[in-house]
Amino acid sequence: MSKIKCQCGHENPFGTVLCEKCGRPLTDEAKKSEMVDMRYEGSARRSQTYKKSVIDKVWNFFSSVKIGVSIIIAVLATSAIGTIFPQKFYVPVSGNDPSEYLEYYERLYGTVGKLYYQLGFYDMYNSWWFKILIGMLGTSIIIASLDRVIPLYKSLTKQRTKRHPSFMKRQRIYGESKVSDSDESLKNAEKALKDLHYKVKVEDGAILAEKNRFGRWGPYVNHTGLIIFLLGVLMRGIPGFYVDETMWIREGETREIPGAPGYLLENVDFSVETYSKDKADEVFGEALDKNGAIVSEFKSDVKLYKEKEGSLPGSSDVEFMKEYPIVVNKPLKFDGYSIFQMDYKTGELKTMTFSLMNKKTEQSVGEFTIDLNDPANDYDLGNGTSIELMEYYADYDGIVDGQPSSKSPIPNNPAFIFNMKTPEHPDGEKSFVAIRQTLEVEPNDYEAKFLSAETRDASGLTIRKDKTLYILLLGGIVFMIGVIQGSYWQHRRIWIQKGSDSEMLIAAHTNKNWYTLKKDLDKVKEVATLPTYTDKQDKEAVIDTTEGETK
Amino acid sequence: MDYAALSANLLLVSFIAYLVGTFFFGGAVKVSKTEKTYKDSMWGKIGIVITIIGFVSQLGYFITRWIASGHAPVSNMFEFTTAFSMMLVGSFILIFFIYKTPSLGLFALPIAIVIIAYASMFPREITPLIPALKSYWLTVHVITAALGESILAISAVAGLIYLAKNVDLTKKSKERFWLEAVMFTVVLVLGFVVSSTAFSLSGYEADFTYVDKNGKPSEMTYNMPPLFGMSEYEQVTTDTMKPWFETPAIVNAKTLTTFVWSLFTGIILYILIRLIFRRPIAALLQPFANKANSQLMDEIGYRSVLIGFPVFTLGALIFAMIWAHEAWSRFWGWDPKEVWALITWLFYAAFLHLRLSQGWEGKKSAWLAVAGFVIIMFNLVAVNLIIAGLHSYA
To answer: Among A296, A484, A540, which would you mutate to test the B interface (most chain B Cβ atoms within 10 Å of its Cβ)?
Structure first.
């Protein structure tokens, strides 16, 4: 494409609206307007220039702020819909059975809930359309930034001190009038502007005072931060970068840590503490009276072990690493992993003790204790008496298809089938024993009677490793730098120059905060005789000044 | 010294100071003809002095309560909302010294007053921290987030003044309707305050047992006559009224009852106001907004979003993520409160883009600022009370 040659002699890239050097309007539209659009300095943006090929069209689509804002609104709306009912991961349904989820939403929220499930809103943030929206947002950020930042940079570095009057006249803040001694005015203005910490350039009877240009790069810096953040999120898909596992570990147990091969964890003790009236601060008295006990701490005292190098997986050849109390907000950290206190269960059954009774004499012939997590098959009570544990159901859930069934391996509701061998019945008598329930095929002489149970606590832990965290943090920091840079510093420019005869022209522009720019101008006017300016957008200012002065 | 009692008294002092301050700002606006003249009015000067006294007193409330409880007083609905109102006044004072405009005070202080009154309807006793909140991130995250929200709220105040001045109230229009709707919402909050206070003064209590959504038997105490009963409720207190309806298990009938009572009271209040003044509330406020400079209000609205947005990002997203990673093992979990913080952030991001490149200034920008405040309030009120999640500490 051909270059556009301005009257001042500068060759501008095709599509330029305002000459990069002198600011003359180059398009018919700009020539006709009373106020020029200064957003990107009237520079040639790719999206505004090339509109033919498919690539152009894709580029133009994503570089449009209108499209960008539409994508933001779409993300916003879908996110909001996702909060109407609880999301999949907060729903207390175990396993991945879709029908159970459907049943949950329908039971609690009726037809609307069913629809919510069927439309996939119950897992909104993992849905393909949500991911596509985020992808589009990322694309839009990259393309829209590139489309603007490069030409903006070019025109800001090429700008000339002396601008053409047609450029000055089309600024939002503009003034012109005859001044008695224009050189004196320029000199005073230069000094005043320097005192206000402007960078002042003087050239051929013209002043360009500029301040905080770096604020203009803020948006592009913060967009870079956002892209780094989104890349960080994408990288979690790389194997080894991200681990998210949970484990239940009972007191006294030592288990391999899921997701962290080679490491073992022992749960020494788990405890829950509550604020009590006699121990807690006096000021909490009223709250404790009202709410009852308030939990103050969940704590798992654990020991961390590592398998020795060269030992077989699962071997007991381990090395003690450290002891640590895990509480909420204070995870155990090692080798890039963190273990968090997330959940707990108290009073899980550990052992059950039974006594073998002779029904007629009501005499005990011996006692036996079953470890519910690792039950033995036989319990010898001496004197030719023994118990054979034929079947064990840790979490008995009733009879299914004529067979007793267990819904989980956790001993929530243990049930047993015993074969009780006594001298009278060497082949044994069979009995089904569950909590508060004994079933016999035919009347037995003996029964296993429940005596006592021992319980223990279990701690629910989450294991995380996230190598992307530093990338995310970097993205966050870059974003913050950019957003502060762009929001707290405004790029201000003031042009003062001599026109024909003894005329003087003054114009000013800022990307935001016009109020302070005008205050700066007023300060300069106090020491230098300059034309009165008007703000073309403040239509009430005239009335304000006149009325203010009459009072 | 009893810090807890001192703290409560200091809050009361600040509440009264804001009331008095409002009148002085009203005087400042009333006696002067325009923005330019009232900048230096004596009324305005007294107004800002009283506001600062109120602010210092509220800061005293905050500090003494912190000393009394041993943790930053931002751990429940009452504490957070009060802190939010304090920062709103603080942000106003800051903006006042940049722009010297009493109009802003005349609208910002009443909003702070309503927010304090609203906060006081929640349990005010000092509560010990639950394990999840025991972290210095509580202080850092919540205070920064509240500060960001309060600066953003100033833009809504400026927007409201802009709209009250520039919306033509003589003709029927969508704008007129929505402006009045905003005013009505404020009256509804007052309705909540009035009804809650009335029933609490009368000491009303009604106990129920019910079955919760997980099928477990639970108990519930109403402090207002129960219009709606919880799912499968049974009355424990027998001399109280019988609920009109029984609600499904997912509905919190107590919250619904409170809402309906507030609505009743709010509507009655609104009708009374209309009967007494024979004009819409927006029209009552217009004379006070008329003297504000529209361009300046637009500028303040934009500026406070520019100042508030980075603070909000830092507090409500970045610090939030860091803490969430420490406490809940993940930096982001799509918890409703998190999502609504993201929604707020996206909304203001859209606001900035629309303003920067689509030239949405003046009325459009003012409406967006008001809408942003509605989102912030939705996150504070509705998400805490209706959409239960990890953040429901109230």
So the answer is: A540
pLDDT of residue A316: 67
Give me the number of domains chain A comprises: 4
Cβ separation A340–B328 shorter than 8 A:
yes
Count CB-CB contacts under 10 A for residue B266: 22
Of A109, A473, A480, the CB nearest to B313: A480
Closest chain B residue to A125 measured between Cα atoms? B334
Last residue of a domain, one of A464, A492, A513: A464
Interface touch A65/B68, C-beta < 8 Å? no
Q: What is the pLDDT of residue A95?
A: 67
Residues A193 and A246 occupy one common structural domain: no
CB contact under 8 A, A487 and B346: no
**B7 within 8 A of B83, measured Cβ to Cβ:** no
**Closest chain A CA to residue B35:** A544
Which region, left, alpha or beta, applies to residue A102 given φ > 0 means left and ψ of -120 to 50 means alpha?
alpha
Same domain, A68 and A140: yes
Question: Do residue A450 and residue A363 come from a single domain?
Answer: yes
- Give CA–CA dist A533/A527, Å, rounded: 15
- CA of B295 to nearest chain A CA: how many angstroms apart? 6
Residues A479 and A526 in one domain: yes
ipTM at complex level: 0.88
The answer to whether B130 faces chain A, any CB pair under 8 Å, is yes
Q: Inter-chain contact A83–B336, Cβ cutoff 8 Å?
A: yes
> For chain A, what is the radius of gyration of the CA atoms?
39
Give per-residue pLDDT as tens, A360-372.
888 888 888 998 8
Query: Is B35 in the A-facing interface, judged by CB distances under 8 Å?
Result: yes
Write the CA distances from A530 to A175, A203, B23, integer angstroms: 9, 18, 42
Task: State the amino acid at position A406 in one-letter form.
Answer: S
Answer whether B299 sits within 8 Å of A75, measured CB to CB. Answer: no
Q: What does the pLDDT read at residue A142?
A: 94
Please check whether residue B327 touches A, CB under 8 A: yes
User: A72 and chain B: CB distance < 8 Å anywhere?
Assistant: yes
Q: Which domain holds residue A55?
A: 45-155
| B314/A480 CB distance under 8 A | yes
Residue A145 shares a structural domain with residue A67: yes
* pLDDT for position B342: 95
In this complex, is the C-beta atom of A545 within 8 Å of any C-beta atom belonging to chain B? yes
The residue in chain A having the minimum alpha-carbon distance to the alpha carbon of residue B383 is: A83
Q: Who has greater pLDDT, B238 or B35? A: B238
Residues A433, A448 contacting (CB under 8 angstroms): yes
Contact list in B for residue A280 (CB cut-off 8 A) is 128
Q: Supply the pLDDT for residue A255.
A: 87
Quote the pTM value.
0.86
A451 contact B CB<8A: no
Range B161-189 average pLDDT: 90
Residue ranges, chain A, pLDDT below 70:
1, 94-95, 278-280, 311-316, 540-551
A196 and A274 share one domain: no
| Residue A334 included in any domain | yes
Å from A433 to nearest chain B CA? Answer: 28
Amino acid present at B48: I
Q: Classify burial at A237, counting beta carbons within 10 Å of its beta carbon; exposed 0-12, middle 13-18, buried 19 or more.
A: exposed
CB contact at 8 A, A316 and A328? no
* Burial profile B282-320: b = 16 or more Cβ within 10 angstroms, e = fewer: bbebbebbebbbbbbbbbbbbbbbbbbbbbbbbbbbbbb
Q: Taking 90 as the threshold, does the pLDDT of residue B87 lie above it? A: yes
CB contact under 8 A, B346 and A547: no
Of A126, A155, A184, which residue is a domain's last?
A: A155
* A438 within domain boundaries: yes
Residue A229 domain flag: no
Residues A201 and A119 in one domain: no
Cβ contacts (< 8 Å) between B358 and chain A: which residues? Answer: 65-66, 69
Same domain, A195 and A125: no
